[in-house]
Design brief:
Elements (H helix, E strand, L loop, with lengths): L2 H10 L7 E2 L2 H18 L6 E6 L3 H16 L3 E2 L8 E6 L4 H13 L1 H6 L4 E6 L7 H8 L5 E3 L7 H11 L3 E3 L6 E2 L12 E5 L1 E2 L10 H5 L3 E2 L2 H13 L4 E5 L16 H9 L6 E5 L8 H9 L6 E3 L7 H7 L5 H14 L4 E8 L6 H14 L3 E6 L17 H23 L6 E9 L7 E5 L4 E4 L9 E9 L4 E8 L1
Parallel strand pairs: 1-8, 2-3, 2-4, 4-5, 5-6, 6-7, 9-12, 12-13, 14-15, 15-16, 19-21
Antiparallel strand pairs: 10-11, 17-18, 17-20, 18-19, 20-21
């Protein structure tokens, strides 16, 4: 399906139409395929699967579902591609760099297949959901055995069985009719932190973004299914649960059942147990005072709000099709800080959007200073073929975007340090993530506000809440000593 045709198919679906759920018969069919693959693997000596992931938290959550299905089919999991009997690469399409890296890494698996012809290589996710990408892979990557789009993930058992039984390559691109499938097994990477997707897709069509074209229109999971999943995670000892969606603030609009995102959060907080709830990502146009009030009223909801502003210029925001202006955004920030003075706020910003003038960039710098973000994720604009912004005039030269990007980083780094300094001398509750990747002699964790904390510890602390006395604040982290643990 071509990009224009895909967009028309997505746009024709009504905003408030309930998503189509996979039927019991469709779920049962995948269970049967799972057993068939398991039977086919029975003659092999401990077959292993490896899932390689690029992209956002939603991709990570999808990869855990892929790993869960592979486990059900009889594979043990390995992180070493050289050991694997099947490798699945879950790709990202948001930025060109991520796409090129995924293609390069996948190309490197050719030598593995030369050594082990029985190796099955699959590619899935956002990149291969782009128009014509399946055809490109079919032509240029003959050693890739299967390709499936984001809509087809739940049908992996069927796709894999057909590759194995028919001995030919399989291509399952998106069809523009996504389905919500419950009951897909999950192999979680962590035993104490969990991703829980509450919805899929996006309705916003920001002019720079490829996501609506590769993940389809918004569709929410039923609240009872989400709550049951979270209840099971809490029962299993999970301490941090992050609710995922391209725009969680739009949750539940299709159902018309009176359960919006704030209501869902409140219901989750009624679950007994010692756990923390996070969520991402929020779109400012749909962030409500009701949501902020719900956060303020519930101790189980982390006091951290990631609210992407993208630009501080009203003109650029209109060009981006963001549906809010600077003042509306700042009004939300002021209300958050009124209700939750200690809240930590982070954001996303794009530098060098087509047509961005010096005064537009100055507006972005000024909103960064006015808000005083604790953290910022900044990106140089990446042209995505098929999006309106890719066809806009006045694409900004690399030299200018680089200079602006450096100024933005310098500005935010100073603010981050200023926001961290008041933590010196305070005691903070931290969920321990284990040894720091950058400093293995130290342990790291995150505060409720999502700030990184470094401290001395031992491996038994991983996955537990501890109280840390902060002795030093730095730009990107806090340092301290553990005084209690739970």
């Amino acid at each position: 399906m071509r990009r224009k045709e895909m967009k028309m198919a997505i746009m024709k679906r009504p905003d408030k139409a309930p998503p189509r759920m996979a039927t019991p018969e469709e779920i049962e069919a995948q269970r049967i395929y799972t057993e068939r693959v398991r039977t086919a693997l029975a003659s092999l000596d401990a077959p292993k699967a490896c899932v390689v992931t690029y992209g956002c938290q939603q991709n990570e959550a999808d990869s855990e579902r892929i790993a869960g299905m592979l486990r059900e089919m009889g594979y043990a999991y390995t992180s070493e591609t050289a050991e694997a009997d099947i490798i699945i690469v879950n790709t990202c399409a948001v930025r060109d760099h991520a796409e090129q890296k995924a293609l390069s890494i996948t190309g490197g698996y050719k030598h593995l297949k030369n050594k082990k012809p029985s190796l099955i290589i699959g590619v899935c996710g956002c990149m291969v959901s782009k128009a014509d990408m399946s055809d490109r892979i079919k032509r240029s990557y003959p050693y890739i055995d299967m390709v499936f789009g984001t809509e087809m993930l739940w049908r992996l058992p069927e796709i894999l069985y057909r590759v194995m039984s028919e001995d030919k390559r399989m291509f399952f691109p998106n069809l523009g009719e996504p389905i919500v499938a419950e009951g897909v097994p999950v192999l979680r990477e962590s035993g104490y932190k969990a991703w829980v997707s509450i919805m899929y897709g996006c309705n916003n069509f920001c002019t720079y973004c490829i996501v609506p074209y590769v993940r389809g229109r918004e569709r929410s999971r039923r609240p009872e299914d989400i709550i049951e999943e979270v209840r099971g995670l809490v029962r299993d000892g999970y301490r941090e649960i992050t609710l995922l969606g391209q725009n969680v603030n739009s949750y539940g609009k299709e159902f018309g059942n009176g359960c919006d995102f704030a209501d869902l959060l409140a219901r989750i907080c009624e679950i007994e147990g010692d756990f923390l709830v996070r969520f991402m990502t929020s779109h400012p146009k749909d962030a409500s005072k009701k949501l902020i009030d719900t956060m303020a009223a519930n101790a189980k909801i982390a006091k951290h709000f990631h609210l992407p502003v993208q630009s501080g210029s009203d003109r650029i925001l209109r060009e981006m099709n963001r549906h809010y202006d600077r003042e509306a955004y700042l009004s939300l920030i002021r209300y958050m800080r009124e209700k939750m003075p200690e809240i930590c706020i982070s954001t996303d910003i794009i530098v060098g959007f087509p047509g961005e003038r010096d005064e537009d960039f100055e507006d972005t710098l000024s909103i960064v200073k006015e808000v005083g973000y604790d953290m910022m994720y900044s990106f140089i604009y990446s042209k995505r073929t098929g999006t309106p912004a890719a066809e806009m005039p006045d694409q900004i030269p690399e030299k200018i975007t680089g200079e602006r990007f450096a100024r933005l980083i310098e500005t935010q780094n100073a603010i981050s340090l200023t926001r961290n300094l008041p933590y010196e001398g305070r005691d903070v509750r931290v969920l321990v993530d284990g040894r720091s990747k950058n400093n293995p002699d130290k342990f790291s964790g995150r505060t409720e506000g999502n700030k990184i904390v470094l401290f001395d510890g031992d491996d038994s602390m991983t996955g537990r809440f501890v109280t840390v006395h902060i002795s030093e604040a730095q730009t990107f982290a806090l340092k301290g000593e553990v005084i209690t643990e739970k």
